[in-house]
Amino acid sequence: MTVWILGDQLTRDVSVLDDADRVLMVEAHAFAERMPYQPQKLTLLFGAMRQFRDELRNERIDVAYYECETFGEGLDAFFDEYPDAELTLQRPSSHGAAERFSSMVEARDGSLTVVDDERFLTSIEFFDDWAEERENASDDGSDTRFRHENFYRHVRRETGILMDGDDPEGGEWNYDDENRETPPDEWNAPDVPRFDPDETTRDVHEWVTDRYDDHWGNPDLDAFVWPVTREQALQALDHFVEVRLSEFGPYQDALLREEWALCHSLLSSSLNLGLLTPREVVDRAVSAYESGDAPLNSVEGFVRQIIGWREFMRHVYRRSMPEMNDANQLDQTHELPELYYSGETEMVCLSEAVGNVHARGYAHHIERLMILSNFALIYGADPHELNRWFHFGFVDAYHWVTTPNVVGMGTFATDALSSKPYASSGNYVNKMSDFCSSCPYAVTKTTGENACPFNALYWDFLKDNEETLRGTGRMGLMYSHVDNKDDEEWNEIRTRAADLRERGAAGEL
Ligand code: FAD
Description:
Blueprint: E1 2-4, E2 22-28, H1 39-58, E3 62-68, H2 71-81, E4 86-90, H3 97-106, E5 111-115, H4 124-137, H5 148-159, E6 163-164, E7 167-168, H6 199-211, H7 230-248, H8 268-273, H9 278-290, H10 296-320, H11 323-326, H12 339-342, H13 348-360, H14 365-379, H15 383-393, H16 399-410, H17 426-432, H18 453-464, H19 466-469, H20 476-483, H21 487-505
Parallel strand pairs: 1-2, 1-4, 2-3, 4-5
Antiparallel strand pairs: 6-7
The protein binds flavin-adenine dinucleotide.
Region (Disordered): 177-200
Pfam families: DPRP (PF04244)
Protein name: Photolyase
């Protein structure tokens, strides 16, 4: 049996590899031209594939590795060499990919068996059984919201992770009220671990920056900080647990100028490539708590991201596609402001966040949610253009994870994930960051020449989407403020918002 390993399936310890006679891997170079993928991302992806190939070969596993333009060309070359081979593939995470690959193999008279993907903690059956139970229970009127928090608690109960018998460890399911601190002025984030690029990474990087020289993002190898091997990913995990985890919790919502990583784990690219498994990452964090090396508020906060949000997103995507791909319940159609591409803006928050994505293909969660997608949301940008922007810009972006986060969580283009949009004015940014004090725009002003663009756009967004949002969960307070504004105030807000959109399109924000 030949196991076909895709670029984001670089996990050695999966049962399908136990019985493999051979491994097939295809680098599809034209595929990487469908979008102007960030050079840091392509260096990571192709670099990690070649490293995985070499590790398998060191174990004396036969790897048929093709560098070609398309998956079709790779399959042609493979079946020319091994006409009788039978292929097995772990279920790809992108919607429809298993079916597409099956037809490509069938068209070459080959056979392809698709098996379960073991790179997540919860199986398809686990989620679907839970979802079915909640759907059935809704008939009797009980609280059955198909929401993350219910799922997260279910995973905790079923796996015993951070449980004390039937109760959550420490008595609470979450410690978010301890996790909204801003670091003191003199605080510096710990250094980010770096891995010296070896010859393989250097070669890939040189080739990527040559072939994809018109792509969006920083081509500089000095900025490359992402693990490309399992060994490096394990080092990154050690570093996180030993150095960053204790402060992860309290500062997880903070935004600081020139601190792009704070105490975030920076593990998403390794998890999404398969270099780390969610279970081992969570076990390490829980052990640190058990040995007294990390506080519960940090460990629970981190565990929730992995066994709650990451798993939930994967399943919601799976169940909401293909509808999610086109969802646009607020009918938002403006082009994404030019600053997302040029990085040029006077707004400090967006300049920092877009700059970080451009530099390394990374921004932390609050930058993604409350700066990058919040601004696009209240500006009225097309959620699918934003999804595409995230997809090509981020090192950890794959359709299965970017789509629910951007289309669902970030832009409320579907209500599959939350009952209200994550929309805010400049007030939130000011509270959680040190950006506004050095910004030429005044966060206290809504209208007038130097008023913070978040403010007028925020009110204008609420007004524009009143029909959909007024009745939605927890929006009542916001609409009481909407109701308190008089016609003159609205006139000024609407004029300012229209002007900001014009400036956004012209790259003049
Ligand atoms: P940490 O803050 O240290 O969190 C730990 C881990 O939890 C992450 O590594 C990640 O694996 C997981 N996680 C946390 N939240 C989520 C979530 N909502 N969905 C999936 N995993 C989660 N994550 C991606 O992996 N790829 C994406 O393309 C992506 N796009 C996003 C777009 C938007 C608009 C938003 C709001 C979030 C997005 N996320 C995405 C989720 C999250 O922001 C990133 O996983 C996280 O910032 C990665 O950095 P980290 O590893 O330092 O994470």
